[in-house]
Specification:
heterodimer; A: 255 residues; mainly alpha; B: 69 residues; 2 helices; flat
Chain lengths: 255, 69
């Protein structure tokens, strides 16, 4: 079973790293991070803040967009092209197949994100001659956020077509990023069914804001360790729930 | 070329979302999310919800297995 899983992950990974969208995202982000780090308009303190800010935003955006585009079409493509049948004809559970597809695509995105993260850390080291532990922590939580976005895309892809999945995932991602500020404010301003609907949607949406420690990195603030642990547990549990629901839905679906 | 243009449009749209988040801290002096007690409560509530969902599904599967065998 483990051998089958590794073989499927490898296939999914190789398919994902060949996709043009990943190359474009990684190259664009590397150029933006490189330009922010090398072109000097400000004094050193401001320059370092700009490098940290731009680097973290680019790693997050490139990772999230790549994972959405890679995962949203993966299952649909396999079913439409009938690539899934020879695999499922073997004694491989559908859940394992889906999990391997998710892991392979996520690994490919992580390779691209690692390139960006290394560039950012190298630029910080060039400017400051040291790299703070918080930079590594902030990047690690960006990886976790991207895993959650990928799991959400995988979950939606078991229900919808690729275009619908990508659009819905990006929409939910934006709503999840604004939920603590905007949606709660919106719920307070409404009454009746509208308030109930907004509160229900807000309660189910993933809290994307919790994974972002860019401000702490830029302004050199400390984040409590127990909060980091809470967010890590939250991210892992939410991702696992999304993957579990997608496995359940793919298992009962006609292919 | 179309891919690059599409990605640039999405990056611009997403940056609006992030700008809103940044603006919240810059203009209203709101606490950062790791200083916000409401955020912790929200995360704990969602974790509780996921645990309840997991327990409900687990018990359902256990009961179904017991009655079908």
């Amino acid at each position: 079973m483990l051998r089958a899983f590794i073989a499927l992950v490898k296939l999914s990974f190789l398919e994902a790293v060949r996709r043009q969208v990943l190359h474009v995202m990684v190259l664009l982000s590397l150029v933006v991070i490189g330009v922010a780090g090398t072109v000097s308009f400000f004094d050193l303190g401001v320059q370092v803040k700009i490098v940290k800010d731009t680097g973290m935003v680019m790693i997050l955006l490139a990772g999230s967009l790549s994972v959405v585009f890679l995962i949203s079409g993966a299952l649909f493509h396999d079913v439409e092209q009938r690539l899934v049948y020879p695999v499922l004809a073997r004694p491989i559970p559908r859940g394992l197949y889906l999990f391997a597809r998710y892991t392979g695509a996520l690994s490919a995105v992580y390779v691209g994100m690692t390139l960006m993260a290394l560039t950012l850390l190298l630029l910080l080291w060039i400017h400051l001659r040291y790299v703070s532990g918080l930079a590594v922590v902030a990047i690690a939580f960006t990886y976790l956020e991207v895993a959650l976005v990928g799991a959400l895309a995988m979950l939606l892809s078991t229900f919808f077509t690729p275009a619908m999945t990508a659009t819905l995932t990006l929409f939910l991602y934006l709503l999840g990023s604004l939920k603590m500020g905007y949606l709660q404010h919106l719920a307070e301003r409404n009454t009746g069914i509208a308030k109930w609907a907004i509160t229900t949607i807000s309660a189910a949406l993933p809290n994307m804001e919790a994974f972002r420690f860019k401000d702490a990195l830029v302004h050199d603030l400390t984040v409590p360790a127990n909060y980091l642990l809470l967010v890590a547990i939250y991210g892992i549990c939410y991702t696992a729930t999304c993957v579990a629901i997608s496995i359940w839905n793919f298992g009962r679906r006609e292919v | 070329m179309r891919l690059v243009a599409g990605i640039l449009v999405i990056l611009t749209l997403l940056s609006v979302g992030f700008a809103h988040e940044e603006g919240g801290h810059a203009h209203h002096h709101e606490p950062y999310h790791w200083q916000n007690a409401e955020m912790r409560q929200h995360l704990l509530a969602q974790l509780g919800g996921m645990a309840a969902l997991g327990m409900a599904v687990g018990s359902y599967r256990l009961l179904r297995r017991r009655f079908t065998t």
